[in-house]
Amino acid sequence: MKTATTEVKNLLAAGGAGFFAEIFTITLLDATVKRYTSLDVDVAYGGNTFSATGLKVDRSKIRQVRGLEVDGVTLTVAPGSDTFGGLSFLAAVRSGAFLGAWVLCQRVFFTSFTAAAMAAPVGIITLFNGRWSDTPTLGRGGCQANIKSILELFNIPWPKHTYQAGCAWQLYSAGCGLAKATFYSAEMTVAATGSTTTSVKSADLHGVAASYKGGVLFFTSGALDGVQRTVQSGSDVDGTYGQITVTPPLTAAPAAGVTFKVYPGCDKTLTTCTNVFSNQANFRGFPFVPVPETTI
User: Fold this and answer.
1) Alpha-carbon separation of residue 263 from 7, 186, 193, 214, 228 (angstroms)
2) What pLDDT is recorded for position 110?
3) Residue 3: beta bridge partners?
4) Does a structural domain hold residue 29?
5) Are 60 and 130 in contact (CB under 8 A)?
6) What is the value of pTM for the model shown?
7) Do 250 and 187 share a domain, yes or no?
8) Residue 251 in domain
9) pLDDT tens digits along 20-63
């Protein structure tokens, strides 16, 4: 159900809904908030300014159905004047900066498009609120992004418990029983050279980089403070430095001397649960169940 202010309801009831602008609030995973409008001039509402030039945003028809089916809308976004962590919009999309971002689509109403009327909006209707799910189309002129409702998070395997070789618990969940804080590394420092948007090099990683595969790296200082990425792999570079590869790519290469922490991931095997986490008592897999076989 769409929500609307009392003023908007009264305006619609009086047949005066001819002047409106659509506004979009995008909240990235690093808590950066960006605001845009489909109108050709900036729109002010609720103490915030929605830019007409930062990005050019338009949307498809909103698909909403009853029940638990996932609703969605497609945004068509063209680059504007805004940058994201020093990257252009398209570069930021390619780096994964928008995946999982929350997108709020609203329509704000005016009595007319005069400057005085636009300075005092009548009210607002919330049209859609969802997550930036994927970017199926990306070109020089912009991109199309699928925004899906929070019901998408219900797309998980059923039934809850299955017989499988790997552990069914999410690492550090209540079922797993481990506390994430216990496994944080000591603070590490980025090396003077060698780090890129996809890899982080540090002397502190030497000899231990491979143990963080599948875990999470997060920065604790510098321009990337608070940014986190999944560790794809890790290895020693030479006799002094180690390096881990992260995904999705960072918006910028980490500067020398920036600090970060890492905690390990889990490949769901009994071996890792035992040797890395000493948590075999809570292992929720069945590695000794015979595998399916075909006989003639």
Assistant:
1) 51, 10, 23, 9, 11
2) 85
3) 126
4) yes
5) no
6) 0.56
7) yes
8) yes
9) 889 999 999 888 999 999 988 999 988 999 999 999 999 988 87
Q: What is the pLDDT of residue 26?
A: 95
Q: Which amino acid is at 257?
A: G
Question: Over the chain, what is the mean pLDDT?
Answer: 87
- Let me know if residue 162 belongs to a domain: no
pLDDT of residue 119: 82
Q: What is the 3-state secondary structure (H, E, C) of the chain?
A: CCEECHHHHHHHHCCCCCEEEEEEEEECCCCCEEEEECCCCCEEECCEEEECCCEEEEECCCECCCCCCCCEEEEEEEECCCCECCECHHHHHHCCCCCCCEEEEEEEEECCCCHHHHCCCCEEEEEEEEEEEEEEEEECCEEEEEEECHHHHHCCCCCCCCCCCCCCCCCCCCCCCCCHHHHCCCCEECCCCCCCCCEEEEHHHCCCHHHHCCCEEEECCCCCCCCEEEEEEEEECCCCCEEEEEECCCCCCCCCCCEEEEECCCCCCHHHHHHCCCCHHHCCCCCCCCCCCCCC
Residues 30 and 94 in one domain: yes
